[in-house]
């Protein structure tokens, strides 16, 4: 028992110094003058615009990554094909490559002065870099593996028996997916979506490169925080940062309460200790 | 014939799962696909169901070419070894699944589900989740779910394999009675010869991707086509150049008088087996006796053709063994019981190995 307490204390101190305390200081700085900072921030049109843009971008990136994430997971788990391992390791690339590199890469491919699609797209009036589509692309790229890494182990564990049973009972592939597979992987998808959402709200490096950071046009909340901070508008910077952190924390809290195995895993750990 | 399998072959990489298999499954009967693990019987069942595609060959179900039909259009009920219960749906919704897919009216579905749950004795569990049922109950639910769509054939893949011995026996009896009640053409895969002999109307013995023999349980037992079939259906031992069943070996404490008459070659089906008349006895020495419940297993050393001792196993009842007073070292005479069947031992295999393999 004493050992358990010691380990617990170490982990709590570590997490406290690294995560909880610094984040709480942001909150403290935000509310140093009561709700003044928040009120000021929310009356600034550039702040409101940045928050709106962030939400729009995050929602689009989440939708993209959920659809492709579940699809790629099914492909990886249910099908055998050449190059599967290569594909699987490519999927981890967004986690290992610096977001700045991602941003630069996207500018090269889609930028108006690049050699690839950019000029052609721009000639047809489609602006990707320095516009919302570019920001969505960069965000989706960076958050790509999160849904997949949640869904793949659950799909593997699930096996194919239930899906085959559904097929033998007359269900089409779409019906099988909707009625059998999706309910079984539901919580993994929800968790992946929340992680993707949190990641998308907070993306900075890649977005900074592809957006051009034009205030009121392509400036997302994270970029705005940096700019306000450098422009000596610390209260507004803190207030916006606080809002960003609040949404992410709320996401994770909501999911940990929604997750059905929450109570059982708690009961299990109680039984073990 | 309800299911016609014609010249089906299937490879998994280099492994030959099925090698040019043809078989007809009779309508309305309970047929067992019997064989050792990895022999191809489950693969054949899955190909019939459409869960696996044959490399070559053709499958007809109720006179319709089903070779390229997807599983969902074959109208077969399939029951998996590990139940494949839909974990997020209640027992009733599990059973209703196929009917909901077919857009059956709600009241009709409810009636049918109730009827089926009654049939499998699960009506009081209708609202439970599969995780709240025992293994046997889950398998009965899976059976009800497969029967709900009124399949033209019902396929069961080692349906009782994951259950403990007692429940397995109960479910086996229950399946037999259920089939007598609802005579839908049923095929089940098993590696348990007792299960096949007890439940099936017809048995297809499959080994190494080939069909060894097809017949009723009695035909298979009385007229095994070859060494494999005979040894797979129960223990065999080697006596005087022939394979016989240990309980068909008579033990005498004095040399019995030979009865005139030759061994009659060829049984009812003209196979390799022979029905014995009382032939000459072979002399030997009891090596050891083992008693298992009501059975006494006696190992007897007999001088072989090449002079080396051969081991022959005989099984008698405890009472018989006691009457004969068999003990290690006792001199005995062995004879194949009149009316019992035997087949010639394969020349290639050593008799000793044959006994060890059983």
From TrEMBL, chain A:
One of its GO terms (molecular function) is ABC-type sulfate transporter activity. Its main location: membrane. PROSITE patterns: ABC_TM1 (PS50928). InterPro entries: MetI-like (IPR000515), MetI-like_sf (IPR035906), Sulph_transpt2 (IPR005667). It is a multi-pass membrane protein. GO terms for cellular component: plasma membrane. It comes from the Bacteria. Residues 51-259 form the ABC transmembrane type-1 domain. The complex is composed of two ATP-binding proteins (CysA), two transmembrane proteins (CysT and CysW) and a solute-binding protein (CysP). This is Sulfate transport system permease protein. It comes from Sanguibacter gelidistatuariae.
From TrEMBL, chain B:
CDD domains: ABC_CysA_sulfate_importer (cd03296). Residues 3-233 form the ABC transporter domain. Keywords: ATP-binding, Cell membrane, Membrane, Nucleotide-binding, Sulfate transport, Translocase, Transport. Signal peptide: none annotated. One of its GO terms (cellular component) is ATP-binding cassette (ABC) transporter complex. InterPro entries: AAA+_ATPase (IPR003593), ABC_SmlMolc_Importer (IPR050093), ABC_transporter-like_ATP-bd (IPR003439), ABC_transporter-like_CS (IPR017871), Mo/tungstate-bd_C_term_dom (IPR008995), P-loop_NTPase (IPR027417), Sulph_transpt1 (IPR005666), TOBE-like (IPR024765). It is an enzyme of class 7 (translocase). This is ABC-type quaternary amine transporter. It comes from Sanguibacter gelidistatuariae.
């Amino acid at each position: 028992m004493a050992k358990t307490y010691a380990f617990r204390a170490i982990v709590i101190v570590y997490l406290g110094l690294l995560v909880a305390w610094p984040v709480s200081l942001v909150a403290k700085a935000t509310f140093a003058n009561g709700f003044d900072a928040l009120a000021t921030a929310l009356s600034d049109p550039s702040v409101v615009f940045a928050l709106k843009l962030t939400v729009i971008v995050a929602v689009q990136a989440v939708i993209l990554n959920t659809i492709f994430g579940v699809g790629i997971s099914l492909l990886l788990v249910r099908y055998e094909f050449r190059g599967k391992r290569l594909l699987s390791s490519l999927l981890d690339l967004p986690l290992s490559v610096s977001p700045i590199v991602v941003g630069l890469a996207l500018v090269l491919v889609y930028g108006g002065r690049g050699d690839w699609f950019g000029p052609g797209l721009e000639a047809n009036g489609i602006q990707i870099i320095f516009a919302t589509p570019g920001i969505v692309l960069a965000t989706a790229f960076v958050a790509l593996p999160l849904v997949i890494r949640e869904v793949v182990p659950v799909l593997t564990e699930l096996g194919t028996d239930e899906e085959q049973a559904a097929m033998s009972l007359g269900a089409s592939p779409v019906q099988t997916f909707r009625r059998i597979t999706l309910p079984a992987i539901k919580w993994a998808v929800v968790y992946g979506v929340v992680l993707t959402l949190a990641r998308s709200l907070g993306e900075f490096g890649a977005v900074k490169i592809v957006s051009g950071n034009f205030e009121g046009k392509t400036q997302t909340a994270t970029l705005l925080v940096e700019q306000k901070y450098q422009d000596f508008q610390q209260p507004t910077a803190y207030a916006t940062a606080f809002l960003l952190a609040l949404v992410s924390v709320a996401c994770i809290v909501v999911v940990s309460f929604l997750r059905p195995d929450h109570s059982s895993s708690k009961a299990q750990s109680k039984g073990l200790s | 014939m309800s299911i016609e399998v014609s010249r089906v072959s299937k490879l998994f990489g280099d492994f030959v799962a099925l090698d040019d298999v043809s078989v007809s499954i009779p309508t309305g009967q309970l047929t067992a696909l019997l064989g050792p693990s990895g022999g191809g019987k489950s693969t054949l069942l899955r190909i019939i169901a459409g869960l696996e595609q044959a490399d070559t060959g053709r499958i007809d179900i109720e006179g319709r070419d089903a070779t390229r039909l997807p599983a969902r259009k074959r109208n077969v009920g399939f029951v998996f070894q590990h139940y494949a219960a839909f974990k997020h749906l209640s027992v009733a919704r599990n059973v209703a699944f196929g009917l909901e897919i077919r857009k059956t009216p709600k009241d009709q579905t409810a009636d049918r589900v109730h009827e089926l749950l009654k049939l499998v004795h699960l009506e009081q569990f209708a609202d439970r989740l599969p995780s709240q049922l025992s293994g046997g109950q889950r398998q009965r639910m899976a059976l009800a779910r497969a029967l709900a769509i009124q399949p033209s054939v019902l396929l069961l893949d080692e349906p009782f394999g994951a259950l403990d011995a007692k429940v397995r026996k109960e479910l086996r009896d229950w399946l037999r009675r259920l089939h007598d009640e609802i005579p839908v053409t049923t095929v089940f895969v098993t590696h348990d010869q007792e299960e096949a002999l007890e439940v099936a109307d017809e048995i297809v013995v499959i080994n190494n991707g080939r069909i060894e023999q097809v017949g009723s349980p009695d035909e298979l037992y009385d007229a095994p086509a070859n060494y494999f079939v005979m040894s797979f259906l129960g223990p065999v031992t080697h006596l005087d150049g022939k394979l016989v069943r240990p309980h068909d070996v008579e033990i005498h404490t004095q040399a019995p008088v030979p009865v005139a008459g030759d061994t009659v070659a060829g049984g009812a089906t003209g196979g390799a087996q022979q029905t014995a008349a009382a032939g000459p006895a072979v002399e030997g020495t009891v090596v050891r006796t083992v008693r298992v419940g009501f059975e006494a297993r006696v190992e007897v050393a007999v001088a072989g053709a090449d002079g080396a001792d051969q081991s022959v196993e005989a099984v008698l009842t405890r009472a018989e063994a006691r009457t004969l007073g068999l003990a290690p070292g006792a001199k005995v005479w062995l004879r194949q019981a009149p009316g019992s069947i035997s087949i010639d031992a394969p020349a290639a295999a050593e008799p000793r190995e044959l006994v060890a393999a059983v």
